User: Fold these one by one.
Assistant:
Number 1:
Amino acid sequence: MKIGIIGCGFIGGEIASFIDENKEFKLIGLNDIDRNKAELLAKNLKSNNAVIMEIGELIEKSDFIVESAKKDIVKVILSNKNIDNHGKKLLIMSTGGLIGNMALLEKIKNCQVILPSGAISGLDAIKSAAGKIISLSLTTTKSAKSLEGAPYISKNNIDLKNINEKKIIFEGKLKEAVEGFPQNINVAATLYLASKFKNIKVKIVADPNTKFNTHEIECTGEFGIIKTTTQNLPSRNPRTSYLAVLSAVNVLKEIKNNIKIGN
Ligand SMILES: NC(=O)c1ccc[n+]([C@@H]2O[C@H](COP(=O)([O-])OP(=O)(O)OC[C@H]3O[C@@H](n4cnc5c(N)ncnc54)[C@H](O)[C@@H]3O)[C@@H](O)[C@H]2O)c1
């Protein structure tokens, strides 16, 4: 399987290293807005098949395209004339880029679009329950420091330095949360796309004493109650949970595996 990676940062690098160790896959193309990053990654791989390419060429030549760049690039990829060719697979990490581009996603019929669970657990159950959900909530608890720079914080003049104990910073709808806290956008977007539930309630809590990024999901419906808690530690990229990287690499492992567990 010929693979091309768009975005050669932390996740792209980890996926490239996995491919480097697995002969079933062949990394043929790399793309990064910062060409130096793509060149550095190519240089550090054992195999020397990967060529630095423009996005169009990478999509045309790859059977499996990995997006591990930024949400803005998702629209460009979904609009490419070759993306929906038969037999192609597209792994999207910046799932937040799909919100606002749902019409483009729905137009894709032949390419298999894969959205990994990323930094949350329980997505298998939530997906099975879609259409039978009565209520769904996401509570994200982070250190006060990691909420710095969020548009909602500056707009509402919230002084994060004076938070000495756990405090609810935001309670509202998914769309407002995505706008106010774009760093949370992937988790919220993936949850929405799996559940197809429009009234997801989001709570953001600042905890000055935590080292985790915690995502709690509570979902009720005809099936009963689903409750999951994922306490994430950051990866080498402090903005990216380590579990999200493991989840992306696991997509490739699953392709090789003929036994499918969970759905
Ligand atoms: N789905 C999830 O649960 C989840 C979890 C963590 C991260 N993510 C997302 O995955 C993406 C990658 O994360 P990361 O930790 O590897 O980030 P990173 O910052 O380490 O790497 C991103 C790379 O993409 C490159 N890039 C940026 N814009 C680009 C563009 N327009 N075209 C080509 N390359 C571009 C950057 O130069 C950088 O090298 C981010 O969008 C992040 O938000 C998703």
Number 2:
Amino acid sequence: MADTPALELRSVHQVYGFGASATHALDDVHLTVPAGRFVSLIGPSGCGKSTLLRLVAGLEEPDAGVVRVHGVPPQQACAAKMIGLVPQSPALLPWLSVLRNVTLPQKINKGAGRRRERIVADTGPSAAPSVSDMRELLVKAGLGEAVHKLPAQLSGGMRQRAAIVRAFGLRPDVLVMDEPFSALDEFTRESLQDQLLDLWDELRTTVLFVTHSVSEAVRLSDTVVVMAPRPGRIVDTIEIDLPRPRNERLFRERRFHAYEDLVRDRLRRAWHGAAA
Ligand SMILES: Nc1ncnc2c1ncn2[C@@H]1O[C@H](COP(=O)(O)OP(=O)(O)OP(=O)(O)O)[C@@H](O)[C@H]1O
Ligand SMILES: [Mg+2]
């Protein structure tokens, strides 16, 4: 089981609509992600990033091809609560406080732990965090004042942070995040990147992360996957060979910027391909 990749997509196709108006959201996508890797998807709008995430999270079935999460179909991995999803827009329950929103998944998922242990033997520290752990995580995410507020009383960025904390709280084996930081100001964004990296360091969760920010992708990732649209496909896979922890000092280093230039260059080609 140890060699089974955390994520595997083989010859995946996803088409929306029919005939001349069909959209080829994903065309022959192959991707293998070993357990514990941090992988970012980057590419022009409409190249299939969210579609790929939905397939991995078991929200949709591919029209063709195979998707596996730790060797099992995504729906099975979902039932075992192995997958944590932070969607492009946060979905919090409007009638529950922030604290109750983030602690709810552990309360309703008690049976999932056993199913999960059967699929992944070495899940690491998977004990569900307590309410006080979750409160601490909320404080770290800058939501200390907001724990008893309702989602409607929060700003968009605060809601997004609550959704991120909730996903972390499940201690998933695979964390799937769709542009989680895009609505945040630069400093909040950097601080959440720090927290995400700290948590990832501790939990060694496999992360699949969508972003439009080149520097965010380079800073966070072991691997940056560049996608292009029409049809949606993977055009490049870049390994980011930079030491960790990736803190502020790294931002001043030449090799960090060299990777940014490389990803930007590949992205530019994907854009030109898209415009052609
Ligand atoms: N449910 C759907 N029905 C029809 N077309 C869809 C559906 N979902 C996605 N598409 C189309 O599939 C393509 C890929 O969409 P997707 O949302 O995966 O792109 P994306 O890379 O996440 O874009 P963005 O960066 O704007 O979020 C787009 O052309 C989109 O219009
Ligand atoms: Mg998207």
